[in-house]
Amino acid sequence: MSSVSHTGPSSIVVKCEGCEKAYKIHHEKLPSGISSFPCRACGTIIPIPQVQVKKVLKPGAERVLVAVEEEELGKLIQRILDGSGYQGHLAFTGKEALNVLKDGEMDLLLINVYLPDMMGYELFDKVSSGEFGPEIPSILLSAVHHGARYKRAPTSLYGADDYLERHHLSDLLIPKIRRLLSPSDDIPVKITPADVPPPTDDQVKVRRDLETMENTIQPPEDHQMGAVQRMCRVIVGDIALYNEDVISTKSPEALLDAIASDLREGESLLMNRFPEMEDQLSPLLKGEMLRLLISRGIRIS
């Protein structure tokens, strides 16, 4: 691997691992999108390490409350926000999010569909009660247990102004925040990947970090059941997000049949991750689905 030494806030010296020829790299002078170059002496491809320059937040920077379960994901989102001049305030449970709101005003909420102590829509219900002042623009973050699964928009946002699937955090989060906080004719009401420029090197790195998180090595055996239960809750949270029209219109007796295909896909995803628990996965997933429905006031006999 090429050796690296820092010579200034935005410049580094890299050495070719093939011939050890040294090059001084000034990041501010690099063309956009350049992440490597061939050694002029031997032709070896030399990667250019990215220098993380933290932007200084201006006084009065807009504040974004980020409520997610995973600490690693929260820090990654905070990195995205900091890089665009926003202040990210992290919470890892619904209760923590409410405490953050009590301590100070937020300009925007980014709330995960699933939180350990409540569903995202339950948190929105509490926020919309008026206890925390005027209505706050909000984005619902879908857990997206299978990134390619859903090709349609959610049938309900449960009071949120917009939604974002997790695998689009790197490219769509900031445009969606800007649309809500600073609307203009130049920003479309519905932002899609086609509305944003090609990803930068940092956005590609964020996406890879997200993929790494999604494919984390399984936990030790003594934590296995907790990991299964958490994934079950993630799956049913997504099912509820994309099937609110079904949940709100079907009779309790017909409801499970109406979402049977989504439950089967959820079982398949669980099987891929936890094959040694095959016999327990279906009842665990159904149990979490029933608990979610009960929280909505729906009881299935």
Which tags fit this structure?
3-stranded antiparallel sheet, 10 helices
Structure description:
The chain has 301 residues and is of the alpha/beta class. Helices cover 41% and strands 15% of the residues. The chain contains 10 helices and 10 strands. The strands form 3 sheets. Strands 7-6-8-9-10 form a 5-stranded parallel β-sheet, sandwiched between helices. A 3-stranded antiparallel β-sheet has the order 1-2-3, with no helix packed on it. Strands 4-5 form a two-stranded antiparallel ribbon. Strand 8, helix 3 (120-127) and strand 9 form a beta-alpha-beta unit. Helix 6 (224-242) runs antiparallel to helix 9, helix 6 packs across helix 10 (278-295) and helix 9 packs across helix 10.
Question: Can you describe this structure in just a few lines?
Answer:
With 301 residues, the protein is an alpha/beta fold.
Could you outline the blueprint of secondary structure elements for this entry?
Layout: E1 3-8, E2 11-15, E3 22-26, E4 36-38, E5 45-47, E6 63-67, H1 71-83, E7 87-91, H2 94-103, E8 108-112, H3 120-127, E9 138-142, E10 162-165, H4 169-181, H5 201-214, H6 224-242, H7 244-249, H8 252-258, H9 260-273, H10 278-295
Parallel strand pairs: 6-7, 6-8, 8-9, 9-10
Antiparallel strand pairs: 1-2, 2-3, 4-5
